[in-house]
Amino acid sequence: MQLPKNWRIKKLSEIGIIFNGNSINEQVKKEKYLGLKEGFSFVATKDVDFKTHTIDYDNGVKIPFSEKVFKVAHKNSVLICSEGGNAGKKIAFNTEDICFGNKLLAIETWKDIEPKFVYYWYLTWDFFKNFKSQMNGIIGGISIKNFKNLEIPVPPLPTQHLIVSEIEKQFSRLDDGLSSLLKIRQNLKSYRGSILKSAIEGRLTEEWRKEQKNIEPASILLARILEERKRKFLSENPGKKYKEPEELEKNNIWFDVPYWWQWVNLWQITWSVKDGPHYSPKYVDEGIPFITWGNVRQTWVDFVNCKFISQELHEELNRRCKSRKWDILYTKWGTTGIARVNTYDLDFSVWVHVAVLKLIESANPFYIQYILNSSYCYSQSQKFTHWVWNQDLWLTRMIKINFPLPPLTEQQKIVEEVEYRLSIVDELEQTIEVGIKKAENLKQAVLKKAFSGELINS
Q1: Are strands 262-265 and 402-405 parallel, antiparallel or unpaired?
Q2: 107 - beta bridge partners?
Q3: Looking at domain 216-402, which CATH architecture does it have?
């Protein structure tokens, strides 16, 4: 890239002081610093939003001004995440004196460097590409030494001020349109939730029910399900003792449902609930997909960004837990309470983070998927997710999740209605995402011109 004559390429170490923060033991943080009213706000990686590049200063953690051991990043410094999955992505311009976490790096620039000029350089794709090239695969981040050696194009200070002003003027125009798109996207997300809420409360098929005659009530369906459950378990587990499912905990029922529906729990409609191995397996470069919680989404399973295990290990793990087509994958660690039907003609194994729910045939798997992803069932999953060493939705707790079960024909009708409405939402979201991506590309075009000296006459 050809720069104007009065620009210089400098290392980050030449434009300011760079340092990382302090780590705090979670227990110490809760006992000593949580809830203090006076002191420096403590900013951890989680307090930096990688989309909006803003900082949550009001997280309830304050470091007393007298605590000299903590490093302070002063107002007008720039923060960047240096370690983990968001390394190089979580970036923010700091507007007050703070203490900060050890996975963040701060730069306080010299007087001849405009700090916002550095902040906007951090946001460029060129910077991120260089950042990634210096990351260490072992620690999943970048060392301070490597970070200091990254380069930045620097014009004279007056030109920096002009460039920052022009960037912010053009970004302001783009943000007006982007704000509208983001608001529509959020509304569509809320509408998704309302569709599932209408489904679980019976409102989605209210008109359909009025036209039906001689529908088998779900109480009879449940009796058949329980018989089928026992028969299926004994045929798949010869010699094992069958255990009747526990009855519904009725104090968890929050709303009325149509009279021919039946309240059930997850235990009653599954004949097997298992998870993957409780240890980290040996991975291979190519082999059988090994699915964890981060690969399971409400609308798909990510087989691209996953790890792989050998065929031999896959066969060994299958003896404990094998997911077949039409089983439900249900996340029980990390982001818990996400359900997805296995619709794939593909062999894969799951880790302990994912439960495999094997349903009775008289329960429509897609109805169960949508209901488990509804706010009603999701809130139960979060109540049952406990903290031991990690957030975990244990198998013995998830099977207590309850929900209404309609007759089988109505389950199918609900699935059809949900999928029709969600397909419209999907199309709208794709249009919105194209607009958001276009706005992001336009911002990068502005930054590219800014740091090549083409945005203003320097």
Answers
A1: antiparallel
A2: 18, 78
A3: Alpha-Beta Complex (3.90)
pTM: 0.74
Helix (H, G, I), strand (E, B) or coil at 373: coil
- Closest to 97 measured CA to CA, from 74, 77, 116: 74
DSSP, res 105: E
Question: Would you say the C-alpha torsion 398, 403, 406, 407 has a positive or negative sign?
Answer: positive
Annotation: CATH topology of 8-154? Adenine-n6-DNA-methyltransferase TaqI; Chain A, domain 2 (3.90.220)
Q: Do you know the residue count of the chain?
A: 458
Instruction: Name the DSSP letter for residue 295.
Output: G
Q: What is the pLDDT of residues 332-344, one digit of tens each?
A: 998 999 999 999 9
Location of structure tokens 């029910």: 209
Half-sphere exposure at residue 451, Cβ-oriented, CA atoms within 13 angstroms: 23
For 87, residues 6+ apart whose C-beta sits below 8 A from its C-beta are: 81, 131, 135, 140, 141, 142
Residue 239 φ/ψ region, left for φ over 0, alpha for ψ in the -120 to 50 degree band, beta for the rest: left
Tokens of 238: 């010869």
Contact 337, 331 (CB under 8 A): yes
Tokens of 75: 């107002």
Q: How far apart are CA 418 and CA 362, in angstroms?
A: 19
Question: Average pLDDT by consecutive 10-residue portion of the chain (458 residues)?
Answer: 89 97 86 89 93 92 91 97 92 96 96 97 96 81 95 97 96 91 92 95 94 90 94 92 85 82 95 94 94 94 94 93 96 94 96 96 95 95 78 91 95 97 95 93 95 83
What is the C-alpha to C-alpha distance for residues 41 and 56, in angstroms, rounded to an integer?
A: 9
CA distance linking residue 195 with residue 351, whole number of Å: 31
Is the backbone of residue 340 left (phi > 0), alpha (psi -120 to 50) or beta? beta
Query: Which pLDDT score is estimated for 458?
Result: 47
Dist CA 425 CA 371 (whole Å): 18
Task: Name the residue among 92, 117, 88, 100 with its Cα closest to residue 40.
Answer: 100
- As a whole number of Å, the CA-based R_g of the chain is 27
Give the HSE-up count for residue 395: Cα atoms under 13 Å, Cβ half-sphere: 16
